[in-house]
């Protein structure tokens, strides 16, 4: 109750748009493809000695945090400007944090009754800025909390003020934990709470003391992905079908979007093709998009608050129609929630005038253009089909890849 009252007081001062929108990572083009092909099988992904292969079908369990973990600076949030060290905390204190986070997850007043998706998105966006070639970015720093900083001004992070506000009372109760660690731990707990992989938590992320990290390192926002980059640039909201190649059924320019997602984003961070598909299939089973945040609208899956392989299986099995803001026919099908903001395109599991076999319109679901490349690219497609057939394999592969993502740039 105390945490709830503390949060309500904090949230009243926060005018953040709600949303758990598309996980997006945009970057400037660079020659990461060749580097990644040489390093693809050398990536260190093993969670423990009991899991010799990155894709071993092992059963995970949490391990206690080390009491001698590296120091974590809390920057401007630390009392008196002091640096607080996570080494001063015991492993039991992290279990206390975990317990409080677990109690926070169910929230009937939030999207679909769960905070797990927005915490997952917060962890993705705080980690997905990493660049392996420069060693910059990653889950260290928690730079999003600085209102004038580059990360907080990134439009791809719209709506995440609310996620941070939900966690602020827990940060106040446990000042030994850095913001960086708290954001990642919240995502791990959210995954566990919703039937996802149980990921061992390693503390030691260090918070930035101010917003200057990005400018000092010559960085700018734009490392998080754009869902339509390089696709047919001239959108006519009244004739969105002109964006479709009639011979293939794909969006014109999708190959460029695929290069953006693969090379400019995930290869830049150090991921291979299988890991890319695992991250998207596991991450986009959660939450929904909002027109007032990302511009896109609706959930990816029917049940957006529990782990499953529904994203992969539905992408392959369902019929998808490209829509824009001008597609008012969705209202008549009870799918108004799938209409994106002006200037945005997305796929929906609806066809004008067509209903499902049981006579209803079915669940309202959408896919971003950057999702559909998993279906169109032959290499991505083979892994998409693998996960569509095997949920347990996806749970394991996603857990390994997500742990890797959330430890980028941390030095452990």
Could you explain the architecture of this structure?
There is one protein chain. By secondary structure, the protein is mostly helical. The protein has 2 domains: about 1-35 and about 65-220 and about 400-405, Peroxidase, domain 1, CATH 1.10.520; about 240-395, Peroxidase, domain 2 (Orthogonal Bundle). The protein is built from 15 helices and 5 strands. The protein has helices at about 1-10, 30-40, 90-105, 115-125, 150-155, 160-175, 180-195, 215, 255-270, 275-285, 310-315, 330, 370-375, 380-390, 390-405, and strands at about 290, 300, 320-325, 345-350, 365. The strands form 2 sheets. It has a 3-stranded antiparallel beta sheet. Strands 1-2 form a two-stranded antiparallel sheet. The longest helix has 16 residues, at about 255-270. Residues about 1-90 have low confidence and may be disordered. This is Plant heme peroxidase family profile domain-containing protein.
Q: Work out the radius of gyration.
A: 21 Å
Sheet with the most strands: spatial strand order: 3-4-5
Cα-to-Cα separation, first versus last residue: 36 Å
Number of strands: 5
| CATH topology name of the largest domain | Peroxidase, domain 1
Would you list the SSEs in sequence order as H and E? HHHHHHHHHHEEHEHEEHHH
Strand content: under 5%
* Overall mean pLDDT: 79
| Helical fraction | 25-40%
What structural class should be given to the helix and strand makeup? mainly alpha
Number of domains: 2
Put simply, the count of helices is 15
Low-confidence stretches: 1-89
- Tell me the major beta sheet: 3 strands, antiparallel
CATH architecture of the largest domain, by name, is: Orthogonal Bundle
The best one-word shape is: globular
């Amino acid at each position: 109750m105390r945490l709830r009252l503390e949060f309500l007081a904090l949230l009243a001062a926060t005018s953040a748009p709600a949303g758990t929108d598309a996980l997006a990572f945009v970057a400037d083009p660079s020659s990461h493809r060749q580097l990644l092909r040489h390093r693809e099988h050398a990536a260190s992904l093993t969670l423990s000695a009991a899991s010799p292969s990155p894709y071993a079908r092992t059963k995970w369990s949490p391990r206690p945090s080390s009491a001698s973990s590296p120091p974590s600076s809390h920057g401007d949030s630390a009392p008196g400007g002091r640096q607080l060290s996570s080494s001063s905390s015991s492993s039991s204190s992290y279990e206390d944090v975990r317990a409080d986070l677990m109690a926070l997850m169910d929230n009937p007043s939030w999207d679909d009754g769960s905070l797990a998706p927005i915490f997952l998105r917060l962890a993705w966006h705080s980690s997905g800025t990493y660049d392996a070639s420069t060693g910059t970015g990653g889950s260290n720093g928690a730079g999003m909390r600085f209102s004038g900083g580059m990360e907080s001004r990134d439009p791809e992070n719209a709506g995440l003020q609310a996620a941070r506000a939900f966690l602020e009372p827990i940060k106040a109760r446990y000042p030994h934990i850095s913001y960086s660690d708290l954001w990642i731990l919240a995502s791990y707990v959210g995954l566990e709470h919703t039937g996802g992989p149980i990921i061992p938590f390693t503390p030691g992320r260090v918070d930035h003391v101010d917003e200057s990290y990005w400018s000092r390192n010559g960085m700018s926002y734009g490392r998080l992905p754009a869902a339509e980059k390089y696709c047919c640039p001239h959108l006519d909201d009244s004739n969105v079908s002109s964006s479709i190649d009639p011979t293939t059924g794909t969006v014109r320019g999708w190959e460029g979007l695929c290069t953006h997602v693969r090379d400019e984003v995930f290869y830049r961070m150090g991921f291979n093709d299988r890991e890319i598909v695992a991250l998207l299939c596991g991450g986009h089973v959660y939450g929904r998009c909002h027109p007032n945040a990302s511009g896109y609208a609706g959930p990816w899956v029917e049940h957006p608050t529990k782990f499953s392989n529904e994203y992969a299986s539905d992408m392959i099995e369902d019929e998808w129609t490209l829509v824009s803001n001008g597609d008012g026919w969705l209202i008549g099908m009870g799918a108004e929630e799938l209409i994106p903001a002006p200037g945005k395109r997305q796929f929906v599991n609806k066809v004008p005038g067509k209903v499902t076999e049981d006579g209803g319109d079915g669940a309202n679901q959408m896919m971003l253009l950057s999702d559909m490349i998993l279906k169109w690219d032959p290499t991505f497609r083979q892994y998409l089909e693998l996960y569509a057939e095997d949920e347990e394999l996806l749970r394991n592969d996603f857990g390994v890849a997500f742990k890797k993502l959330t430890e980028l740039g941390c030095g452990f």
